[in-house]
Amino acid sequence: QFTVVAFNVQLSGCKHKMLLRMTQFLCLAALVLLSLMQLTQAVATPNNNNNNNNNIKPKAVVQVQPGNPSGNKPAVATTTIKPQRLVPDPKCLQPLDVGPCRMSLERFYYNKDSKACETFKYGGCRGNDNRWGFRQTCEEACIPKE
């Protein structure tokens, strides 16, 4: 159960205890927003229940910004960059599938024979999960870093 402003909303539907009147549209908008927040949190939070956590290795990067002419010391900030995969995402091992529709959308797929992300024309429906909108996304998911 989530609390948004003065409303208690359950993701199972638009059941809610209202302190103010809420239209069905606002209820659905709140559900979409909460779903996106939950999805974002799930993607950003590592899955501690999965024993296969050594597939991803985060790296820390130290950034030093120069001091200013008045003599202040440089500022040091430590940030963590995107985790790098040590093994390919299982989706990458699926064969190329353009789908049955006839749109001609440029997408990328991982070709396990050439061990590279290559372009293909996606039909716009169905297909499989070895389909990426950007070459960089495909490479980050499918080409392991050492």
TrEMBL record:
Organism of origin is: Drosophila melanogaster
Q: Mind listing the UniProt keywords for this protein, alphabetically?
A: Disulfide bond, Protease inhibitor, Serine protease inhibitor, Signal
The cross-references to PANTHER family, in alphabetical order and at most eight, read: KUNITZ-TYPE PROTEASE INHIBITOR-RELATED (PTHR10083), TISSUE FACTOR PATHWAY INHIBITOR (PTHR10083:SF328)
Q: Which residues form the BPTI/Kunitz inhibitor domain?
A: 92-142
What is the name attached to this protein's record?
RH09956p
Give one Pfam family.
Kunitz_BPTI
Task: Tell me the superkingdom of the source.
Answer: Eukaryota
| Name of the gene this protein is made from | CG10031
Among its keywords, does the record have Disulfide bond?
A: yes
Q: Which GO terms describe its molecular function?
A: serine-type endopeptidase inhibitor activity
